[in-house]
Design brief:
The protein is an alpha/beta fold and 375 residues long. 43% of the residues lie in helices and 17% in strands. It starts with a strand and ends with a helix.
Length: 375
């Protein structure tokens, strides 16, 4: 089977999942064609059965803004025609599903069938899609797709509430490569010392530092934990618009020597394996892929009880959940795990088991294969 995979190539969750899915499908013998404006960030090595097709965006003096949606549709048409795609899988509704729809109907005119599957990841529904200018396009792209999937039951419910009464939207959760995200495969002692110095407890957060992630909450949590005499530090992985504010808060709270800003890195599995507790205090999350990757590394998660996070983190078993902004309660949960080694180990073991048994590649990728075969 030839599968076209359209995604954003950056560090966001949708691009990560699409890339990991494509690589897993290629390992299973399918031919996968990535179509985007740049090589996906996690497509960092050669792999048989994978091809990348770059979307070149034309520039015309008459047209002030880039024509990515049309350029993408044109590239899909080209790849589908000459690589004989069976299925096009687009990740994120805008503009990918619209481009897929245009390409499909151009190809149909030439007698070339193409089925389009759309996976909704979150902000395409909860943020971008709610813009009055985009809402009718997102609604149309959902209803015009041959198949639609959501990464959580929460997101499916929001989609049907806000956009469509379509009933056959499947929930296929995000997944994690539990072989790569496994702390037992890394010698993390030296790396932990580099990241955390002599800290006894390492708190960690990974995100794109957008306001919805509430990155500054992690710094307030660290401050509260340290007031209890716990020698803790915080490692922040990623970058984005709220980094400057986070750095300013560290200075105002005199925590600079206890907070490490690592920036964007590829080796998240190895870094996560050095952590004791993962923090995800987001205002909203449609799934929480970073939390799942932490769980796979045996790191208990303290997170907000919002969106799809409760479908990933089992409260009182693999971590703890609190309301967004409840820094005091999140800090209390961190203190409980940091001061009770037996409980931490129980949570760590349960976290790893939970990731392997429910969210591994072997559990989730076959669901996409079955979807493609039905199409």
């Amino acid at each position: 089977m030839n599968i076209g995979m359209v995604c954003y190539p950056t560090y966001g969750g949708s691009g990560v999942v699409a890339t990991e899915l494509g690589m897993a499908l290629a390992q299973r013998g399918w031919r996968v064609h990535f179509i985007s404006y740049a090589v996906p960030s996690r497509l960092d090595r050669f792999q048989a059965n994978i091809r990348f097709h770059e979307v070149e965006i034309p520039s015309y003096p008459l047209m002030e803004h880039q024509l990515y949606t049309l350029a993408l549709a044109g590239k899909i048409i080209d790849v589908a025609r000459y690589e004989q795609l069976d299925v096009l899988h687009v990740h994120y509704a805008i503009p990918h599903a619209i481009s897929g729809f245009l390409a499909k109907h151009v190809l149909e005119r030439d007698g070339i069938p193409l089925r389009v599957a759309t996976t909704l990841h979150g902000t395409d529904i909860t943020l971008v899609g709610l813009d009055p200018g985009f809402h009718p396009l997102v609604k149309f792209s959902i209803e015009a797709s041959d198949a639609v999937t959501c990464v959580s039951s929460y997101l499916r419910d929001r989609t049907t509430q806000l956009f469509t009464d379509r009933q056959n939207i499947a929930v296929i959760p995000n997944f994690v490569n539990t072989t790569v995200y496994d702390r037992t495969r890394y010698d993390t002692a030296a790396l932990r010392t580099q990241l955390a110095g002599d800290a006894d407890v390492v708190l960690m957060h990974v995100s794109n530092f957008r306001p919805v992630k509430r990155v500054t909450d992690t710094i307030h949590i660290l401050a509260a934990v340290r007031t209890q005499g716990i020698n803790a530090c915080l490692v922040l992985i990623g970058d984005g618009p709220d980094r400057a504010e986070a750095e300013k808060l560290c200075r105002s709270l005199s925590l600079c020597e206890h907070v490490r800003f690592v920036g964007k890195v590829m080796a998240t599995a190895e870094l996560l394996s050095t952590a004791d507790i993962f923090l995800l205090p987001s205002q909203n999350e449609s799934f929480g892929l970073a939390a799942l990757e932490a769980l796979s590394c045996g790191v208990p998660v303290v997170a907000s009880n919002v969106g799809g996070i409760p479908e990933v983190v089992a409260h009182g078993q693999t971590g703890y959940l609190a309301e967004p902004g409840d820094i005091e309660r999140m800090a209390r949960y961190c203190i409980e795990l940091a001061t009770n080694g037996t409980k931490w180990q129980r949570f760590s073991n349960a976290a790893r088991r939970h990731a392997v048994e429910r969210f591994s590649i072997d559990c989730i990728v076959p669901l996409y294969e079955q979807l493609y075969q039905r199409l």
